[in-house]
Amino acid sequence: MITSEVLSDLTPIETPKAEPIRMRTLVHLRWFAIGGQMAAVVVAWSMGIGFPKTPIILLIAASITMNLWLFLRPPKRTSAGRAVGQLSFDLVQISTLMALTGGMANPFALLVLAPVTIAAASLNARQVLALGLATVALISVAAVFGVPLREPGGEILRMEPILALGHWVALVIGVVFFAGYAHRVTAELSDTSGALFATQMALSREQRLQHLGGVVAAAAHEMGTPLATIKLIAGELADELRDDPDLHADAIALRVAADRCAAILRSMGRAGKDDLHMRAAPLRAVLEDAAQPHADRGPLVEIHAEGPIVRRDPAIIHALRNLIQNAVDFAESRVVIETQVTQGALVVTVRDDGPGYPVQLLSRIGDPYLTRRAEAQRGSYEGMGLGLFIAKTLLERSGARLTFANGGPGAVVSVRWPLDRIRAEDRIALAHNPNFEP
């Protein structure tokens, strides 16, 4: 029962999906925009600049009405569709204001980039592309059909055609640059966040598996006494039932079964205690532990390791296991794990005889979600990414530095620790033995 509960904790957990953007954030941003628009109208009015006041006031009032409606009836959750609708409303409102206040001659025309930039930081690429194209179209309409501003004397404020064209080109470039840059940065941050979540889950599972060894050890200890009682009673019954061959044979079989159960529990108990209490182990034992799940997957895994007693850390074992798994996935027939101990460092090298890393990806290996393919294909490294990111993160937290290269033939990854960060003492001095007065 306990084991089932522990194993149930090891089921995969998906990264929680957040809202694209909070509606409250959009409302706050719109209040700032409304304040700026009203201030611009008041300043222009006080300077005597001529512009169509009634349509502009109605547009600002529409934004105020939208915000009040969202304040009185806020949605429980912001969907991507709602966010697109709100940003589209802002885009149309700002573009219309720009068209009514001089078009390209309006010094505040740059603010038309705000909705698409916000969209790029919170929505998917298709939605951002749609808003970007709409922004370019509305900018073009405002440039062609913009209502010119008038000076206090009634003269039209005009911009030279070449400057108006340059302003239009600058706004279009701004749409592409700001939207593309914001979307790329947000996507990378999201990938890193998801990969770190996966790293934490991987380490948590590894620690739970080791804790499961402690549960097994405890179960073996608790069941030892009742098994000994069964064995004793079975032996006494066998002695008393010598006159009945059938019952005597059953008693002997019961005692043999009890002996077998006791032997199994002793073996499980030793393994469990090793998992629970062993904090240090020989370097070769740690590497064998990491390579064991991939030993029978096809390619031959060779371990040439001589080294000191090292920390038996679940994070290190899991990370090395990921590196070995990646090598086995792409090896033709052989994976070699070698170690080298220098004056102040320990180096573990994992090499395979596969096709090696693509040259164009060498500088990016270890980044999360290096490619978008769901599975790796044998014969290329296009499917790797998250596993290597998890391994790199866990090993760097232990003080190691990783290098990825080609040669040997195939892919080569080297993990280098300072000896004082990885070495562990195999003998620890006993504490002071206190004296007890009789």
Automatic annotation (TrEMBL):
Q: How does it sit in the membrane?
A: Multi-pass membrane protein
Entry's Gene Ontology cellular component terms? plasma membrane
Major enzyme class:
transferase
- Catalyses which reaction(s): ATP + protein L-histidine = ADP + protein N-phospho-L-histidine
Q: What is its EC number?
A: 2.7.13.3
- Molecular function GO labels: ATP binding; phosphorelay sensor kinase activity
Q: Which Gene3D superfamilies match?
A: 1.10.287.130, Histidine kinase-like ATPase, C-terminal domain
Q: For this UniProt record, give its keywords in alphabetical order, as a comma-separated list.
A: ATP-binding, Cell membrane, Kinase, Membrane, Nucleotide-binding, Phosphoprotein, Transferase, Transmembrane, Transmembrane helix
Entry's localization field? Cell membrane
Q: Which residues cross the membrane?
A: 31-49, 55-72, 97-122, 128-149, 161-182
SUPFAM superfamilies cross-referenced by the UniProt entry: ATPase domain of HSP90 chaperone/DNA topoisomerase II/histidine kinase, Homodimeric domain of signal transducing histidine kinase
Instruction: Show where the Histidine kinase domain sits.
Output: 218-421
Q: What is the recorded name of this protein?
A: histidine kinase
Natural source organism: Paracoccus liaowanqingii
